[in-house]
Amino acid sequence: MWSPDDIIERNPVDVFGAAMSHYRLAADRPQGTAAVRVFTPSVHDHGWTAAGHTVVEVVTDDMPFLVDSLTMALTAQERAIHVVIHPQLLVRRDVAGCLQEVCDGEGVESADGPKVLRESWMHIEIDSRWKARATWWLTWRVPSPRASAT
Predict the structure, then answer these.
(1) Would residue 75 count as lying in a domain?
(2) Domain membership flag for residue 74
(3) Which tens digits make up the pLDDT trace of 115-127?
(4) How far is CA 146 from CA 81, 87, 92, 150, in A?
């Protein structure tokens, strides 16, 4: 869902900053919930930047049509989408939802195993004309794993 061209010309500090920011968001996420953060990173406040774009970070249980649902919701709000990076990761969490490990796939018996979860980690960059109150609206647009299970 992404091309190396999306980040090849970025400063390595910005790429690392985006990865660490997403990792921090994922650190605590009870199963069946979505962790969502919307912000415009700056070197002064965050130590990295996203080429002046606002960043939408999402960590949730993997399910069909996540990227489509979220990008359609952003497009409906007339948000220009510049970058979409959507890895699906295998992770281990404790019963409280604290991230224990991001698995590389080696030595993992099965993606469907009892201790391994498949999650979607989405990094979407949009125009920076985002208002803080819009974060609440976006949080409700991320499909719910519990709702899709019915």
Answers:
(1) yes
(2) yes
(3) 789 999 999 999 8
(4) 27, 21, 19, 7
Whether 60 and 137 have beta carbons less than 8 Å apart is answered as no
DSSP letter assigned to residue 135: H
Measured from the Cβ of residue 145, the count of other Cβ atoms closer than 10 Å reads: 17
Structural domain includes residue 85? yes
Q: Strands 117-126, 54-61: parallel, antiparallel or unpaired by DSSP?
A: antiparallel
d(CA 150, CA 144): 11
What percent of the residues of the chain are helix, what percent strand, and what percent coil, each to the nearest 5?
30, 25, 45
Region at 148 (left for phi over 0; alpha for psi -120 to 50; beta for the rest): alpha
Q: Where are the alpha helices (DSSP H) in 2-65?
A: 12-26, 43-46
Q: Tell me the residue range of the domain where 106 lies.
A: 4-145
Kindly state whether residue 150 falls inside one of the protein's structural domains: no
Q: How far is CA 17 from CA 12, 48, 67, in A?
A: 8, 5, 22
Query: Total structural domains in the chain?
Result: 1
Convert the pLDDT of each residue in 70-98 to its tens digit: 898 888 888 899 999 999 999 999 989 99
